[in-house]
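Table S4 entry, Vacuolar protein sorting-associated protein 41 homolog.
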Amino acid sequence: MTVHDKFLALGTHFGKVFLLDIQGNLTQKFEISPVKINQISLDESGEHMGICSEDGKVQVFGLYTREGFHENFDCPVKVVALHPRFSSSNYKQFVTGGNKLLLYEKNWLNRWKTSTLHEGEGTITNVQWRANLIAWANNMGVKIYDISTKQRITNVLRDNVSLRPDMYPCSLCWKDNSTLIIGWGSSIKICVVKERGHTELRDLPSRYVEIVSAFETEFFISGLAPLADQLVTLYFVKENSDHMEEEFRARPCLDIIQPLPEGYEEISSDALTVRNFQENECRDYRLEHSEGESLYYIISPKDIVVAKERDQDDHIDWLLDKKKYEEALMAAEISFKNIKRHEVQKIGMAYINHLVEKGDYDTAARKCQKVLGKNMELWENEVYRFKTIGQLKAISQYLPRGDLRLRPAIYEMILHEFLKSDYEGFATLIREWPGELYNNMTIVQAVTDHLKKDPMNSTLLTTLAELYTYDQRYDRALEIYLRLRHKDVYQLIHKHDLFSSIEDKIVLLMDFDKEKAVDMLLDNEDKILIDRVVEELRDRPELLHIYLHKLFKRDHHKGQRYHERQIGLYAEYDRPNLLPFLRDSIHCPLEKVLRHFQNCRMGNCRRALQMIMEELEDVDKAIEFAKEQDDAELWEDLISYSIDKPPFITGLLNNIGTHVDPILLIHRIKEGMEIPNLRDSLVKILQDYNLQILLREGCKKILVADSLSLLQKMHRTQMRGVRVDEENICESCHASILPSDMAQNFSVVVFHCRHMFHKECLPSPGTIPGVQFCNICSAKRRGPGSGILEMKK
């Protein structure tokens, strides 16, 4: 048999040739000979066919024309091959082979000319023509002939000469115009025809052959064909080989192998079952291939088997057989997309069934999203199946909830299932599912019934509030949220403008979250007036302070009527912010502020002093406290309290001298009062006074000495010279302070502040004769500077 992209040509043992289409249907039949057909050849166009038979007949003819060549030889003709471009008038050439290889060429007189290409090495058993190269095999080996140069360019010897050539025939196959694949016995060789360099030519052919790969196999080759950079091999298993198990020993096998320089790697292997395979031998099988269709034909005496590369459908079937459903589903989605959606669903359903049988309900439910798509019937069937096996919860989170929606009863059934055993899961579904999926009133009633058994359940109450919100019964939702002190209460108020409902609930809101409550109140002053808020918080000054403080931070004037009240609130609850408040507020009279704090301070200090005197009766601690406060009124209170207590008077006399005039205390002591250690106390007062006098005199001496030293230092500093150069400028006219011609007369005034002026640029002197001030420093109020240097030349 030979193969064309358009049809097949099949020769039989009874001398007939059949033309079949690619599907194997008979299209034409030729009666050629009463004996077997040895070889059929087709040109590239598929318009001409060459046939040779065992009785020596050779026919070359056009399938669609009357032209032809008919010849009978006196010996069997084993092979025939047409020039690939035989249909062209310039390439009317073909070869035949029996005991010798003959080339037939049509000359310009339209007659056939014969020439012998090779003889003397036994029967020609195979011939293959590609472009300008003819390859043939005989008992000795394989030869290649270049028809363009009329030179034989190589001879590849047969490796295993012990094998009979008729039992183990040579297989030849051109991979491309320069690569020949040879299979003979158990060896495979890949030969590449290459051009010689000009320096190598001499008397040698212009081309040569390089064997790029040669290796032995564990089987006998029946046929070869290329598959990209790999090889498809049809082989007959050796009788004693361990390559395959016993039951497959006599079957032909089709392998894909990867050739290596000195070996090969097996990619895949398939054992073929053909009729009467037990009786067949290596020579009974042939392998042909169609390059255009990537089809491979295995020919046996009784069958033709078509092989093709496995496609994605085959891969998916294999994955399903191996229960690799995930990979099969991914492969199907990539391959089929929308063309075979039902096929993807079929695979996906098989995967879901497998997962359910395994007990992996969550994964099975998750796959429903991808597999079931928008098929509502399949979705509802799966939901009821999950209900039957008690796994409604598993599928709940994957139900469609967008454009595709199931019947409300489906969603309600799942919600009731959660409500029986999982309040948290029920609440999650209510939050996640749009309210349009189910009948809201049905679910509200179900939740209400459950609350009768558990009225304080916060999860159910929160969920009920959400259901009321969706049903636009905001008053009921707000009531529940406030009762629960739920964080969503603020969102609910804002979203549905419920400010009129919360005027009497401001304290409750602030107790829940002060910051959020105050921000909400301030953001909506037009809906809840400031006066109303202040009125509600009058009994909670700490909350009132927070509200008024934030109000003041936003706008210094809005709450001005409460600024005076805020002074006390700041003093009580937020002293660090009191000073910034007083600094920024223009609505607090300072005299009131001062009076408030004086009263507050004195009241506190007097209460503290009274506690020390009355409860602790510790005069030393009372005196220490008065010293710390350093307040005359506090000393007066201390004296008044102590004047009728002699021990206290002694303590005051011993310590008062450096803070209060002792005469004030002595004048108030009653005549005849006995005071312990009075003499020592009076001596101490005089000693303290004397010490103060000495300290003052010492300080005076130090002050005078320091003043004199600093005056002398200043005088020395002012007497120093000041550097003046061309980089200095007049501070009045901004010209260089020194003239460009130093020979001219000039006058410059330099002050101690280092400002320099041309004499003529200075303003007139001040009211003090002989004293000139720097007008720049005087303008900046940095103090006057007198001229320290007048330069003249």
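Residues 616 and 622 are 9 Å apart (CA to CA).
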